[in-house]
From TrEMBL:
GO cellular component: cytosol; mitochondrion
Keywords for the protein's UniProt record, in alphabetical order: Aminoacyl-tRNA synthetase, ATP-binding, Ligase, Nucleotide-binding, Protein biosynthesis
Gene that this polypeptide is encoded by: trpS_7
GO biological process entries: tryptophanyl-tRNA aminoacylation
EC code: 6.1.1.2
GO molecular function: ATP binding; tryptophan-tRNA ligase activity
Top-level EC class: ligase
Protein name as annotated: tryptophan--tRNA ligase
Lineage start: unclassified sequences, metagenomes, ecological metagenomes
Main location: mitochondrion
Organism: bioreactor metagenome
Catalytic activity: tRNA(Trp) + L-tryptophan + ATP = L-tryptophyl-tRNA(Trp) + AMP + diphosphate + H(+)
InterPro entries found in the cross-reference section: aa-tRNA-synth_I_CS, aa-tRNA-synth_Ic, Rossmann-like_a/b/a_fold, Trp-tRNA-ligase, Trp-tRNA-ligase_bac-type, Trp-tRNA_synthetase
Protein's cellular compartments: Mitochondrion
UniProt similarity note: Belongs to the class-I aminoacyl-tRNA synthetase family.
Length: 330
């Protein structure tokens, strides 16, 4: 039985955090056993919103590769590479952009939201590249004739646009070259930031994925708890406590008991945070050990990315030949 081929990527836009891990990477590690997976560090995508400062781009790329490998992605099972190292991504994006209606791009739900959000932060992203982000994303998927894409519920509109672009290309050029990729929805746990808002690098409320035991506990100690609880013996409300939200994600076996103790005023916030830190550090210990080991092997990280780029290039070159032939560009 032929496995579905997955393509997915992440932007190297800053330090990887636990929300990124729980939202995507943890699922990728599981998917690698059942799918033919192609995972890309999409550095070209990062330029759509961070084109004005690329000073840390190479550092971010290396850190992301380190995070992926330490989390358990196998470079033999998966193709792992840097997007810009396979030039066909940019070439196919250009070709697809020639026939993509402007109205399709303007109706993507996240377009105006991000335009407003980042604009309010003083960032000018009213650019051709930002508007064309979905075209580049479609090119990433279509270049490898991917049949499946792991997405969260909020990303389904982007995938549907890719499916529309597949249908448009196949119809325009009288071909069945591209399959319509289907969504593989992840059942990931959404983690709040330590201040209760969405976990985001822009808010400074994250827990870094590579945090060691001390940094982990320090970040947990900063978490907001029930503001009405003053004394240890006061009865707490776990429903408004960020620490409890993390217990539900990382400490399922003890969460019912912790809720009971909190509501009864039999466990203090300091003790509860200490318990959470010990549990999270224990669960992530193997990942942290691998990460520390890999940090001392920068040559190995480069080998993995070069090897992945070579494998991705072979597929991209063959498929690009077919794509250009269908368009009578040869």
């Amino acid at each position: 039985m032929v496995k579905d081929r997955i393509f997915s990527g992440m932007q190297p836009s800053g330090r990887f955090h636990l929300g990124n891990y729980m939202g995507a990477l943890e699922n990728w590690v599981k998917l690698q056993h059942d799918y033919e997976c192609i995972f890309s560090i999409v550095d070209l995508h990062s330029l759509t919103s961070s084109y004005d400062d690329t000073s840390k781009l190479q550092e971010n790329i290396q850190e992301m590769a380190l995070d992926w490998l330490s989390a358990g992605l196998d470079p033999e099972k998966n193709i792992i590479f840097i997007q810009s190292h396979v030039k066909e991504h940019a070439e196919l994006s250009l070709l697809l952009g020639m026939s993509t209606p402007l109205s399709w791009l303007e109706r993507v739900p996240t377009y105006k939201d991000k335009l407003q959000q980042l604009g309010s932060q003083g960032k000018d992203i009213n650019t051709y590249g930002f508007l064309g982000y979905p075209v580049l994303m479609a090119a990433d998927i279509m270049l490898y004739k991917a049949t499946a894409v792991p997405v969260g519920e909020d990303q389904s509109a982007h995938l549907e646009l890719t499916r529309e672009m597949v249908r448009r290309f196949n119809n325009l050029y009288k071909t069945d070259l591209f399959p319509e990729p289907h969504a593989v929805f992840s059942k990931s746990k959404v983690l709040p930031g330590i201040d209760g808002r969405k976990m985001s690098k822009s808010y400074g409320n994250t827990i870094p994925f590579g945090a060691g035991p001390k940094e982990m506990q320090d970040r947990i100690n900063m978490m907001i708890t029930d503001p009405k609880r003053i004394k240890k013996t006061d009865k707490g409300n776990p429903d408004v406590c960020i620490v409890f939200a993390f217990h539900k994600a990382f400490n399922e076996s003890e969460v019912a008991n912790i809720e009971r103790l909190c509501r009864a005023g039999e466990i203090g916030c300091v003790q509860c945070k200490k318990c959470l830190g010990e549990k999270m550090n224990s669960l992530l210990a193997d990942i942290h050990t691998r990460r520390e080991d890999l940090k001392n092997k920068p040559g190995y990280i480069k080998e993995v990315l070069d090897y992945g780029a070579k494998r991705a290039q072979a597929i991209a070159t063959a498929n690009m030949t077919e794509i250009k032939k269908a368009m009578n560009i040869y």
